Write the structure tokens for this entry.
Amino acid sequence: MKIKQFEDRYLSHYSYAILSECEKKIVLIDPSRNPEQYYEFAREEQAQITGVIETHSHADFVSSHLEIHQATGAQIYASKHMQPVFPFTPFDDGDIIEIGHIKLKSLNTPGHSNDSISIVLEHNGTDKAVFTGDTLFIGDIGRPDLRETQQNAAALREELAEKMYYSLRDKLMTLHEEVTVYPAHGAGTLCGKSLSSSKSSTIGNEKIGNWALQPMTPGQFISELTSNQPFIPAYFPFDVQTNIKGAPSFEESVSHVRISETQPDEITRETWIVDTRAEDTFKQGHLPHSVNIMEGEKFETWLGTIIRPDESFYLAAGSSDQLVRMIRRSASIGYESLIKGAFVINEADEQNPVLDLDHFKAHKDDYTIIDVRNRSEVEEKKLFENSISIPLPDLRNRINEIPTSKPIVIHCAGGYRSAAASSLIASETGSPAPVYDLGEAVKQFT
């Protein structure tokens, strides 16, 4: 038996291949959008992919389960509660997949979502591992509200939180303490709030160190789980629906994006340009109606937060190689379908003003200061007494709240979010007031 863990560090996502070495068969769990790494593993092991298990309908990335089924004939397994459109085999409490000496046993563990399952791996008659999806993380658990947009979302979150309480105690905590825990996400995901950077754990260690597995009443658990959760990006409900239907082929879909070495003539101010170049390059020259979402660790998250899934956009980069990378990264959340065109920027006339840092330090009251950090960051420490807090995820909906009678200075915690926010505000306000990005200089005030 062999367990291979794959990591998408940009989305803090873990997927898995379980290999029966005696039968040369592989079952995948929660594959990411590009299936090539799983095909490569199968070739290396001279094995056949015979199954794909989805632990739930994912909100934060697009899965390749349908493409793998179509390419290899592998059966897709998921809970009946997912109600998927694609062909699948229900995989719920009591259902078992057998490959060689391995048994994969389904546990219904609702809480993150109603269709969440965990998979216990039994080898030679002994439970060895559990793949917990977004139910049990290392040091934390999955949040219960990623797909709920209805008016009664708060009530639904509490209902799911109560289900999570019992899923953990009645299902996962009953496993042997030596069983290895393999989650679908690690530190950095928005699917929880305080995940460890460890990539695996054990049931015993989680009973000791995970807050959610400590003795408490259901009410205490629900209150803690539903409080102070991170924001929900705009693309999450879109990805849930994409995964329930099944996404098109990765390579085929990205190949449909039109790439140009020059700026397309048909660009209008009604369509956003997502400029992925470095902040200083963007400020020296960019196109109108551009938002600077730089190539970085969290590009996908901010792309899917700022650009809504019912919009289209142009993708711009500094080179052809960068353009290809960013198209493929956009596809990991299903956004390649929204790209009207992709092009390399050679010349652009729009420029951002440079902040006189000494003047700002001496005369902060002469500026409107916008803090685009998350609410929890502001509550922990406000950096400027007279700043206005508008978290970046809320910015497009609250742009009219920004006073334009004075020069505007934007800050976050390190410069990445403020680069996106300042470009967004400069494009949207239409005000003659200059918009400055404090950028990395914010560290001088922390």
User: Anything to note?
Assistant: DSSP finds 13 helices and 21 strands in the chain. Residues 153-170 form the longest helix (18 residues). The mean pLDDT is 93.
